[in-house]
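Q: Convert this sequence to structure tokens.
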Amino acid sequence: MRNTDFSPFYRSTVGFDRLFNLLDTVSDNGQTGYPPYNIEKTGDDTYAITVAVAGFAEDELSIEARDGQLVVSGKKETDDEDRSYLHRGIATRAFEKRFQLADHVRASGARTENGLLIIDLVREVPEALKPRQIEIRSNKALTSEPVDA
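A:
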């Protein structure tokens, strides 16, 4: 994969450092395709990440939210050394998947279903950041009434 040089953008933008660092991180995370996963939008402010975790028990999976990332990992507790496979197509090797979360997105729950780990996400924008209507008053009202701060 090729790397993108964002340095020309640094000269003409202010306050976008985090965005460019995020793009660098996402494009150079070195993750493999194992295990396969889906990311879907389930509503206006809800999302779901579905990870194929066939062969893993619930206590062998871990989900952790830290530093704006969701880290999903799995590690088999028991090894199948006593078994002799003729063909082994179900991979149960340890894994760690990192998903970068946008601001105000948090994991609201997780469940396993038919060999899939489903993580529900919700975006909760604080009231202070939501759009609000500003009342328009006439000049007479502005000069005669004190304004609340």
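Residues 110 and 119 are 4 Å apart (CA to CA).
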